[in-house]
Amino acid sequence: MKIQSISTLSFILLVIFSCSSAALADDHDDFLECLQNYPLISNNTYTPSNASYTSILRFSIQNLRFTSDSTPKPHVIITPKHESQIPPVIYCAKENDMEIRTRSGGHDYEALSYVSHVPFVIVDLINLSEITVNVSEKTAWVEPGATIGSLYYRIAEKSPILGFPAGVCPTVGVGGHFSGGGYGMLLRKYGLAADQVIDARIVDVNGRILDRKSMGEDLFWAIRGGGGASFGIITAWKVQLVDVPEKVTVFTIEKTLEQNATRLIHRWQYVAPRLDKDLFIRVLMTRANSNQNGRNLTVRAAFNSIFFGGVDKLLPIMQEKFPELGLVREDCTEMSWIQSILYFAGFPIDSREVLLNRTQPRTPYFKAKSDYVQKPIPEYGFEGLWRLFYEPEADESEVIFSPYGGRMDEIPASSIPFPHRAGNLYKIQHLVYWQANEVQDTDKYISWIRRLYSYMAPYVSNSPRAAYINYRDLDIGVNNNAGQTSYAQASVWGIKYFKSNFDRLVRVKTNVDPQNFFRNEQSIPPLH
Fold first, then answer.
1. What pLDDT, on a 0 to 100 scale, did the predictor assign at position 477?
2. How far is Cα 282 from Cα 96, in angstroms, rounded to an integer?
3. Which of 201, 237, 369, 405 could form a disulfide with 273 if both were Cys (CB 3.0 to 4.6 A apart)?
4. 3-state helix, strand and coil shares in percent for the chain, rounded to the nearest 5
């Protein structure tokens, strides 16, 4: 890891700040002039006049909705190669009223890591991507520009019986994923990615580089699920790795409405959250073509599962707990944990090198929303949902149910800022996609998913209607772009993401960044 001692870096920062210009104009040209005092940084600085600017900006954009000519662009992109290059960027941005947006993998659903409506710079952490795995300690230091796919790859490179409970999409950046919680197929077994964080390094608003001990437990609590971009720039995470068996069993069973999918999904709600934590079964629903019952369209539900053990142990469990699904041996495949990562990501299970790719096979236009379900939805509730799937805009829509229970029921809601624990049966992710030749219809697709979200209101959590911050949704509330944002205004969205943990996040923000330098449309505000 590219980590120096805290004391050495403190001396470097003292020199940096003492040598800075006394006064700079509020203009991005002066921001660049300020950076020129630090040659190592200026070598990693890109402006619109630079030939590489556009390719660097677009490389990590994972939602093409934010690539239009009208989308605000950064005045400057900085790609630091070492954490010690970040404090001068903070200093120069503060002096020149430039907002900082921090990007690791570019998967922010609303592009808050690379779009702002006020003058801004991007700190792109793509070069801070080193991973150091310690098998004997069962730990890893991971820099924020690394992807979760590369983390999985490096763990499996060192041990076949260690893993990590993070997301399904391998191109997601570690920085945002961990700081918002982060979950995947091991959710019920081990909880969230953020639950495994045992140390971190962050550059704060004053340019200090802090570890867990020097930042204190309040700030360390806040960045594990509270959204790190509200508090500073995180430069490394230390995580506890988890034990995985040499073989896991996976299966995917697809059923259409004509094959009793509605009744199976309804039954799944009673079964999946109560299974042993070694078994995770999610449901992915999409529209499909049909020639049955005189209809052209149907809904296909894919029951997608991982079991921590062999098929001989899985089959009797499924026969006892969920016989309606009709699982048989031929549906199941035993494989290693790392092969299961590839399986769920849609890649051939022996193509491990693909996990090192930073780009997706297809970058979409999309809009997403999230929900939590605490009481089983009746069958007629699903039937109304299917009607929305038959509308033209739902051609590439998807709804994903991820079961809770297991370890998620055991971790207190206040353990980290992510509050969605016991009491939730499952999480919903609502998604709608469209193509480049449909850009003129963007508003229609967004309107469709808003109608779906409105339809689901009677069936999901309320007071608040909870949401997951890593499925960012600006429809649920935003801060002011300029000036102060009141606690009351921010709590409209903050309570949905964090419930009662929002109050503690606000107190931490007030202590560590009282002038609200690190801000975005859904950043934690300080008290005024």
1. 98
2. 48
3. 405
4. 40, 20, 40
Distance from C-alpha of 422 to C-alpha of 371, rounded to nearest angstrom: 15
CA 432 to chain centre: 17
Strands across the sheet containing 332-335: 332-335, 248-256, 297-307, 279-289, 397-403, 426-434, 365-373
Q: What are phi and psi of 110, to 5 degrees?
A: -110, 15
| Whole-number Å distance between alpha carbons of 163 and 494 | 32
Closest by alpha carbon to 78, among 114, 41, 128? Answer: 41
What's the pLDDT tens digit per position in 402-428?
999 999 999 999 999 999 999 999 999
CB 512 within 8 A of CB 525: no
3-state DSSP call for residue 35? helix
Q: Which of 6, 13, 77, 30 is nearest to 207 (CA)?
A: 13
Which residues does 339 contact at the CB level (< 8 Å), separation at least 6? 349, 350
Tell me the three state secondary structure of residue 103.
strand
Residue holding tokens 């490096």? 154
> Quick check: 232 and 204 in contact, CB under 8 A?
yes
Residues 422-450: tens digit of each pLDDT: 999 999 999 999 999 999 999 999 999 99
Summary count for the chain: helices (H), strands (E): 18, 18
Residues 6+ apart with CB under 8 A from 63: 107, 109, 111, 363, 364, 365, 366
Q: What's the number of CA atoms in the CB half-sphere (13 Å) around residue 127?
A: 16
**Cα(501)–Cα(271) distance, rounded to whole angstroms?**
30
What pLDDT was estimated at residue 7?
46
Question: Residue 133 CA to chain centroid, in angstroms?
Answer: 22
| 44-47 long-range contacts, CB within 8 A, separation 24+ | 44/78, 44/79, 44/80, 44/81, 44/85, 44/127, 45/76, 45/77, 45/78, 46/76, 46/77, 46/78, 46/79, 47/75, 47/76, 47/77
* Residue segments in the chain with a per-residue pLDDT below the cut of 70: 1-27, 292-295
How many Cα atoms are found within 13 Å in the side-chain-facing hemisphere of 124?
24
The kind and range of the H/E element at 96 are none
3-state secondary structure of 24: coil
Catalytic residue list: 471
Return the number of other C-beta atoms located less than 10 Å from residue 372's C-beta: 21
**How many angstroms separate the CA atoms of 120 and 122, rounded?**
7
Quickly list H helices, 143-253.
148-158, 174-180, 187-190, 212-215, 217-222
Residue 295 has what pLDDT? 67
What does the alpha-carbon distance between residue 9 and residue 201 come to, in Å, rounded to a whole number?
12
CB 188 within 8 Å of CB 271: no
pLDDT value at residue 127:
97
